[in-house]
Amino acid sequence: MKEEQVILVNQDNEQIGTMPKMEAHEKAVLHRAFSVFITNDKGDIMLQQRAASKYHSPLLWTNTCCSHQRVGESNIEAGKRRLQEEMGFQAELKELFSFIYKAPFDNGLTEHEFDHVMLGSFNSEPNINLDEVEAWKWMSPKAVKEDISKNPSEYTAWFKIIFEKFYEHLFNIPAK
Fold first, then answer.
1. Burial class of residue 32, CB neighbours in 10 A (0-12, 13-18, 19+)
2. Is residue 169 within 8 Å of 97, Cβ to Cβ?
3. How far apart are CA 44 and CA 53, in angstroms?
4. Could you tell me which of 63, 48, 49 has the C-alpha nearest to residue 170?
5. Is-catalytic flag, 66?
6. Per-residue pLDDT tens for 88-129?
7. Integer Cα distance of 53 and 69 in angstroms
8. Which one from 65, 66, 86, 132 is the annotated catalytic residue?
9. What is d(CA 109, CA 55) in angstroms, rounded to the nearest whole number?
10. Where do the H-state alpha helices sit in the chain?
11. Which pLDDT score, from 0 to 100, does residue 76 have?
12. Considering the entire predicted model, what is its pTM?
């Protein structure tokens, strides 16, 4: 199987090339990505626990799904594709905001991403892909914020960064 390619971008999110995903993470090259948050009618967020077999951040909790856009794929198309692949359901998504972050991992890889954060709604149980997802749960944004503060090692490096921005956006808190 051919390794997935990521879309390399500049600081203005203009495509400047592609690179194999692993190489981009080894070299910490800026590339396009997306993060999906799914909420229910109560305002809870669906979190996923990454599968034990993942090459980085196994068994850590994170947002509903995230990945990388493919060449020619819109952010929304990519989010919907990955939501179906990982969580086994479809939802309408809207893009909330985008920003650049850099998050190193213990294994020497680094996420350096121009991340497009999206939001959707769903009120049922997902049909998780066990190759990708170990478990899932609903949590209120406030409970997530408190748990990250108490148990930061249980969450992915990128989620801690993205959640702070998502929380600020959700509650219209001015950025620091």
1. buried
2. yes
3. 27
4. 63
5. yes
6. 999 999 999 999 999 887 778 899 999 999 999 999 999 999
7. 22
8. 66
9. 10
10. 21-27, 75-87, 141-150, 157-170
11. 97
12. 0.93
Q: Taking the C-alpha atoms of 37, 59, 133 and 52 in order, what is their torsion angle to the nearest 10 degrees? A: 160
Q: How many CA within 13 A on the CB side of residue 130?
A: 0
Residue 29 to residue 122: CA distance in whole angstroms: 34
Q: Residue 44 and residue 39: Cα distance in Å, rounded?
A: 5
In a 13 Å sphere around the CA of 88, the CA atoms on its Cβ side amount to: 13
Is residue 116 exposed (0-12), middle (13-18) or buried (19+ Cβ within 10 Å)? Answer: buried
Q: Is 90 exceeded by the pLDDT of residue 175? A: no
DSSP code of 153?
G
* Token code pair at residue 152: 């930061």
Rounded CA-CA distance 52/57 in Å is 9
Catalytic residue of the set 65, 86, 111, 113 = 113
Of the candidates 92, 60, 54, 53, the one whose C-alpha atom is nearest the C-alpha of residue 76 is 92
Q: What is the pLDDT of residues 146-170, one digit of tens each?
A: 999 999 999 998 899 999 999 888 8
The pair of structure tokens assigned to 44 is 């809870």
Report residue 174's pLDDT band, with 50, 70 and 90 as the boundaries: low
Q: H or E stretch including 76?
A: helix 75-87
User: How far out from the chain centre does Cα 134 lie?
Assistant: 16
